[in-house]
Design a protein that fits this description.
- The structure is a homodimer.
- By secondary structure, chain A is an alpha/beta fold.
- Chain A has helices at about 10-30, 60-70, 90-105, 115-130, 150-170, 190-200, 220-230, 255-265, 300-305, 320-325, 335-340, 360-395, 420-440, 465-485; strands at about 145-150, 180-185, 205-210, 235-245, 270, 295-300, 315, 400, 410-415, 445-450, 450-455.
- In chain A, helix 3 packs antiparallel against helix 12 (about 360-395) and helix 13 packs across helix 14.
- Chains A, B: One of its GO terms (molecular function) is L-tryptophan decarboxylase activity.
């Protein structure tokens, strides 16, 4: 056997160029794939061997397998015809940042393990905070600062833990069964999961009901009522999760009012703007986060709609010591002079894992290679495309727009002639299955006030007006077919 | 302003090729950098602007800044002269896998969001389980299975949560204050952090003392004694964290005995083989995980010493339903037919975050492009280099090997003429600072039984015998200098 040279610079160059061409060709042909993978469960096991090879195989063999076996099982989030969930943007700049991070391949748990990784992250999150006009208290130059988490789930978990531990220091650790968390029923499931992880009792997770009267935003009255009741029952309200741009319908919770209630009751106030935060770099959308000055923490996912490849979830806190108090460990084998002199940030103490990638590189490259003006134009273009889609829906009397469109998501549904909610829901379920199984577009769904709703989320980097128009045609055709079957 | 085309296939091709060349050149010149970055805290803020650019900048400008501003702040984990902590391997195959994953950029939380991502992960972790000769119960074809976590910290957290919730179902959620976790004082700090997150009371985290009499392995007697005492105090022992290859000295806990004690007391038995797991693909090291058949979960980091770029932490469990019960959420907006028919694995329910990268690609490419035989030779070569370093230490009477070498880590120290522990410790601290500040090599330290120990961990992909010999020469020179100063 030849000696293995697993990191030969010239082999990296040769193979790296091949892979770049493979990926560039993938994007060139991306419209030819079914957006939603059409494979059946277990398809891949039949195509691959049962065990790892003993001897090396060639790169060409692997690339051939990617083409013939892997790509058919991929749901193409970067397809211009992808309108499901929320977007997860890839871009040339984000991709280059990922490459560079994978190339350097360092593990930045402490400042000393790569000062540039920690410092660039602090700087770039300050840049992004300024672009969002966050209050200065969220900047790293004061008591707060930003940190890149993998996902919004991890962001809400770490701040929930910080808030929990602050309260338990005062109330004693046996008080955990009394801690109460609040959010609307439109809040992302990640908060519920964070509560389970943190040991918050499930019956103390208050899911406050919303409806169309507030466009599915959390009502301040409902929150203060719940808090008063819990206090009078001897419980300890301690955390509010609010959302700017809910997953189901991009509702925006009334931050200023919620902030007042949180502050006067001593709650940690967290804002999840995972999706809609990106829009707030545009001056005309910045008002959506008015009230952020009353929050303890704020989160937006640069990996959703801000051209930064997954994963890059930006979290800012006003009081970094709360995070550190909750999440720091200091084993001997990681001790070093810079950390012990308290001169540096060690991001290991702001997150769940110890190890961490050099994720700020990709966000830095996105901001530099595109510039804020271009990024604003990018966001506005998607919102305009969604507005056009909404217009198309409104022009067809068989459909209705089912919730106000605020950003680039349109919630809509096919109306049923009969006045029967379950039949209408079934009709829309069938419409979803029908369009997704064409492979021509991919949309997802939600339920609002027991009504099944289709979600059309514009936001893939390659989406143009023609893709939106074609998607609508397919939706209309499938709707016509389903409605005609009903008449038969 | 020109229209932004953030994902233009031909721009990706052009810029991608440039970045490949940049990274290949980085590896070509990697020996020219100081291994440990020599910058001062805050260095980067002085070099970068205060806010993000409004207008786009050129790729060349960014690459120039990477060269002149970022790389000086990087600690070069891939340098052949990197011997600190544990390795974090990069390889051509791992790098290609990262590129491809970043190129496809999908978010595989549920099977449907990219069936290939879920299925390849199941298959490749079965491959790796077979290479490690893990019992069949850990394969995905039964009730168990493997999953890629970001880090060993997340791996131990998710199994701790699964174990916690299983016990609390029986004992009631108010029993959380009675739950007891066990590990040796050599266990990684990630278990302590996981306990904090999960709400285990700090006084119920039993850190069992080890010493040189067991080569810093956990003594079964000490464990069973602690369990008996806790049971008689009305507490509930529920989790044991054992280690194969501890961070300080690569000690190996006696798995068969620990397994018996765990099983007879109903504890969840987790094995952390984050570093040393890789060695167990070699038949002559497989005995180190004898006893894994008694474990509930087993973890090894392919991103440490198995040529798979960070992050790729492989976790196997025998009972996947325990994880799912603890970590699943099922919001309406993620419901889909494949999941509801229970025909598929949705890895979102095996981990903390919702979103997840296509991480199996890089492990698959490592296994295919190198083959198991090459990977075994790779591991053996590092162990042989460590053996040579140990030999060099033994030849110099001013030094001693401070703990048995089992894999590719050598624990050693400079002896002090006086018989004073603190003076000897200070001497070794000074030696560490002296060699690391040359930039010629980077080593780290630990403390064993109050003695400050230097750690020399071989494992970077480019390390050859000459690097080990040169590192030893630098250590000897700096030691001579420090000892001569003492005599003056």
């Amino acid at each position: 056997m030849d000696e293995l040279k697993p990191m030969d610079a010239e082999q990296l160059r040769e193979y790296g160029h091949k892979m770049v061409d493979f990926i560039a060709d993938y994007y060139k042909n991306i419209e030819n794939f079914p957006v939603l993978s059409q494979v059946q469960p277990g398809y891949l096991r039949e195509l691959l061997p049962d065990s790892a090879p003993v001897h090396p195989e060639s790169l060409q063999d692997v690339l051939d397998d990617v083409q013939s076996k892997i790509l058919p099982g991929v749901t193409h989030w970067q397809s211009p015809d992808y309108f499901a969930y929320f977007p997860s943007n890839s871009s040339v700049a984000g991709f280059l940042g990922e490459m560079l991070s994978a190339g350097i391949n360092m593990v930045g748990f402490s400042w000393i393990t790569s000062p540039a990784a920690t410092e660039l992250e602090m700087i770039v999150l300050d840049w992004l905070a300024k672009a969002l006009k966050l209050p200065d208290e969220f900047l790293s130059t004061g008591q707060g600062g930003g940190v890149i988490q993998g996902t919004a789930s991890e962001a809400v978990l770490v701040v929930l833990l910080a808030a929990r531990d602050q309260v338990l220091i005062r109330a004693g650790k046996d008080a955990i069964g009394k801690l109460v968390v609040y959010s609307s029923d439109q809040n992302h499931s990640s908060l519920q999961k964070a509560c389970k992880i943190a040991g918050i009792h499930p019956e103390n997770f208050r899911v406050l009901k919303t409806d169309s009267s507030t466009d599915y935003a959390l009502s301040p009255e409902s929150l203060s009522g719940a808090i008063s009741q819990d206090i009078s029952s001897g419980l300890i309200p301690f955390f509010l999760g609010a959302t700017v741009g809910t997953t189901s319908s991009t509702a925006v919770d009334p931050l200023p009012e919620l902030g007042k209630i949180s502050n006067s009751n001593g709650l940690w106030f967290h804002i999840d703007a995972a999706y809609a935060g990106s829009a707030c770099v545009c001056p005309e959308y910045r008002h959506c986060i008015n009230g952020v000055e009353g929050a303890n923490s704020f989160n937006m996912n640069a990996h959703k709609w801000f051209l930064t490849n997954f994963d890059c979830s930006a979290l800012w806190v006003k009081d970094r010591s709360a995070l550190i108090q909750s999440l720091s460990t200091n084993p001997e084998f990681l001790k070093n002079k810079a950390s012990q002199d308290n001169k540096v940030v060690d991001y290991k103490d702001w997150q769940i894992p110890l190890g961490r990638r050099f994720r700020s590189l990709k966000l830095w490259m996105v901001l530099r290679l595109y510039g804020l003006e271009n990024l604003q134009a990018y966001i506005r273009n998607h919102i305009e495309l969604a507005r056009k889609f909404e217009e198309l829906v409104n022009l067809d009397p068989r459909f209705e727009v089912a919730a106000p469109r605020r950003f680039s998501l349109v919630c809509f549904r096919l109306l049923s002639a009969e006045n029967n909610v379950e039949r209408a829901n079934q009709l829309n379920r069938e419409l979803l299955e029908a369009v997704n199984s064409t492979g021509e577009l991919f949309i997802s769904h939600t339920v609002l006030s027991e009504t099944y709703i289709l979600r059309f989320a514009v936001g893939a980097p390659l989406t143009e007006e023609r893709h939106v128009v074609e998607a609508w045609k397919t939706l209309q055709e499938k709707a016509s077919f389903l409605l005609s079957k009903l008449i038969e």
